[in-house]
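fold description:
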Amino acid sequence: MDQEKQTESIWSKPIPLSEQWQILKRLFKFVKPFRWEMLVATIGAFIVSGINMLLPHGLQYFIDHYLVTKSATTQIILWAGLLYGLGVILKAIMQFTYEFYFAYGSEKTLESIRKIMFRHLHKLGMRFFDQTPTGAIVSRVTNDTMTLSNFLTVLASVIMAIFSLVTAFIAMFTTNVTAAWLMVIFIPIIMLVIAVYTHFSSRLYRKMRERLSRINTSLNENIEGMGLIQEFKQEDRMRDKFEAENGGLMQTRMSMIHLNSLLLSPLTSLLYSAALTVVLLYFGFPLHETFVPAGVLYAFSQYLSQFFNPFSTMMDQMTLFQDGIVAGKRIFQVLDTQEFEPVQHPEDGLQIKAGKIEFKHVSFSYDGKHEILHDLSFTVEPGQTLGIVGHTGSGKSTIINVMLRFYEYYQGQILIDGHDLKSYPLAELRAKLGLVLQEPFMFSGDIASNIRLYNQQITDEQIQTAAKAVRADEFIQKQPGKYHAKVLEGGSELSQGQRQLLSFARTLVTNPKILVLDEATANVDTETEELIQAGLKRLRQGRTTLAIAHRLSTIADADQIIVLDKGRIVEHGTHEELLAQKGYYYSLYNLQVHTE
């Protein structure tokens, strides 16, 4: 609850105008590649504003010089109608032009921003994803970027409004200077309303965005954990939690509706009515020195409408404008994240050939305060298998994380074939180090694409060879469509053992020099485990293997085994040697034997 209140307090603060301006300038950088589309749209908007100024002026001239004097002939009336119609048609063409190109530029900008964010996310280290909810990331890549696209459309309306304001203001002064100066009095009032609205709406929109992000996070967690929720009968609790989040969003939106109802169209319409009243009083005042022509009155009222309509439009669009500013801030928070994946310092042509692994006094901490690995040292010769054993939290998976460069280590050294791990190109590490996790993830597609993982250089023959090697071919041949059998996201139609076999085939089809098995058989039934072990015995030949094991029977044939406790190696030897020591490994092995 305290954390929730802290989050609310952070997002309840309005965004200062200076920060809004900085966000706006950064957003313009995304638009820059599409500046020609925006330039064409801006020119079109300027022409429309000019036509809006000229059309009332033309009617004013026609009324005062022809209709009032009763000198308008049929020919003059037809020419006046033709010219006015041409002006309206030209205005429509230009209006289509600027709206189309603004929308086109906005969509291209949206596509560009999503590409940039997607690429940036793939450059971030695992620490970012460990600390950031998946729903929050999805919300920023989808909802916030879409809002930003709407924001650019709003920006087009603002540009058009500015042109209309300027041209209407100039036209009013050319029509009647005194009446125009009377209208200037209303400008500070309108600007004050905009400033007040901006102050309060930015705070509300930040809260709305954060609450929407939390709803996405809650929804994502519920969908992914639906089986667990139903198993433990937590539907009511999760429903209440979601309804609380959804209700909070509704309350924030209601506050926004109240603010909009007060400060948007109703207030600007009131100001317009007041200004029109002032103009009519001025022109109709009995002590007015000269007679005011009807055309002047008509033209000035039209210009007055064109002067206030943009303000009304801008106030109506201000909700989307503020929403876009907040969305931009949230997007930049992701793009400004510097939690990148560890940086390599590759040497040209350096390749992993033998697969010898050396840890020399390696220490590591996830948060910089609490060490997980303490002065860890061991050596695995090429072709050997190292088993890693220890209780939960002892640092087993952390060894894999630092060796695969998911996290940066700052003390000690890791060598492969005598060269520092950081001196290898990342592509070489990814190609020569094969990882199999405890919980394999299946992508939507078919079995072949899940083994190939969209690497078109891998042939169908290689896929089948890898599948046969891990004994996955046996169940694949029973599937409808065999290697082209449909696979849903997550592989829900496959058993845990079948998914694990596919993950083995996925790793081995790349022919890695080093195999990394992170409790790869922990969730596999005994029969499937026997199939995997039979395949692994052949596959480990000529490959260096690091195997984190929950079931000690799976690493009984390892060349060496290390036992971890609180990030330190407390025992080291073969399976028989460790049993003979009758220490931690001996106790753990006997416990598993008796349990089974």
